[in-house]
UniProtKB/TrEMBL annotation:
Entry GO terms, CC: cytoplasm
A single GO molecular function term of this UniProt record: UFM1 conjugating enzyme activity
Keyword list, A-Z: Ubl conjugation pathway
KW Acyltransferase (keyword) present: no
Native source species: Dioscorea cayennensis subsp. rotundata (White Guinea yam)
Family, as annotated: Belongs to the ubiquitin-conjugating enzyme family. UFC1 subfamily.
Entry protein name: Ubiquitin-fold modifier-conjugating enzyme 1
Source species, domain of life: Eukaryota
Gene giving rise to this polypeptide: LOC120276327
Gene Ontology process terms (BP): protein K69-linked ufmylation
Length: 174
């Protein structure tokens, strides 16, 4: 955790670590893992709300908990930019991290590939591997998606690749 800013360290220490090593093919063990995932997500969401840092909504899109969907947002220059968020839990989970997708941004940045999946290979994947099975979905959002949004959204907005919804509505009316 050396090299991380204090707010990231603080957030990470408050997200519960997971203990069950199970993936979608592991039956009852997967159900136990999903319960741990939900506990960690609830803790992370509660912490964000209490720190006035609410930035995503997510839920399982199917009863098995293998498909997740929601929204995430980033505030830049006092304007909120909101994006659809989705990912599938890989069959080799938790050994393999989920590939987080922001389909609206597909093709708008080089730090993205195959259908809007954000690039987390260099920095996040080794961290995930080192902390398997203790890391889960909440950790992927905290250490993967949050820094990616902070690095990419300002560049995308400043370059004109992403427009605020109010600007899009104004140009459509013209």
């Amino acid at each position: 955790m050396e090299g991380w800013d204090t707010s990231t360290k603080s957030a990470l220490t408050k997200i519960p670590l997971l203990t069950t090593r199970a993936g979608p093919r592991d039956g009852a063990a997967w159900t136990q893992r999903l319960k741990e995932e939900y506990r960690a997500l609830i803790a992370y969401t509660s912490m964000n709300k209490s720190n006035d840092n609410d930035w995503f909504r997510i839920s399982a899109a199917n009863p098995e908990g293998t498909r997740w969907e929601g929204t995430c947002w980033y505030v830049h220059n006092l304007r909120r930019y909101e994006f659809q968020l989705q990912f599938d839990i890989p069959v080799t989970y938790p050994a393999t991290a989920p590939e987080i997708e922001l389909p609206q941004l597909d093709g708008k940045t080089h730090k993205m590939y195959r259908g809007g999946k954000i690039c987390l290979t260099v920095h996040f994947k080794p961290l995930w591997a080192k902390n398997c099975p203790r890391f889960g979905i909440a950790h992927a959002l905290c250490l993967g998606l949050a820094p990616w949004l902070a690095a990419e959204v300002p560049i995308l907005v400043d370059s004109g690749m992403v427009k605020h919804k109010d600007d899009e509505a104004t140009s459509a009316e013209s």
